[in-house]
Here is the input.
Amino acid sequence: GQQVMQIPQYQHVQEGEDFTTYCNSSTTLSNIQWYKQRPGGHPVFLIQLVKSGEVKKQKRLTFQFGEAKKNSSLHITATQTTDVGTYFCAGQPTLGSQGNLIFGKGTKLSVKP
Amino acid sequence: KAGVTQTPRYLIKTRGQQVTLSCSPISGHRSVSWYQQTPGQGLQFLFEYFSETQRNKGNFPGRFSGRQFSNSRSEMNVSTLELGDSALYLCASSWTDRGYNSYNSPLHFGNGTRLTVT
Here is the structure.
């Protein structure tokens, strides 16, 4: 079946270091979304990427969608303790119907002050 | 605008029992999706409802079922509970148009129902 793999599973960084999580799909995606889940919280939508090769920035966060629309990445520059949480990518398969997002298993980020 | 509301927040059930979880979407959102979240498997898609119709279904056994009412509120039911059903069940609503068949709208998640099966 269609899968979205996300690596690494865990990442521990010192505050101020950069962080990157990668998302790879076994099939071409129509679009990809990124979510953040704080400890004890629920996933919160961050951004959606639709176009091949698209790059979007939100302050210290940079999101990329691969040219083949099969991979994506989230890069955080100079992490802060407020960045702690689990980051999920979620892809909509090109041939799948609406409403069925396939989530990666997430990357859990911890930041040491 | 009020967010997605899920009730109850916590549930403890024993094996073999059945359970019903409730979800009230954001006003105006007609699509409601359900996800099961466990530490080992991450977020797994259960099903999605739009205008009282199940539009998509994940790979879960028939013990997992759901429905949506005319006011877009949704319920999911798990019958004959098993220990492995212990999880956080998340409901998410989104704005979507039946004719808009390209991209998923962002999901707005509720706080979830933490189900423990003993």
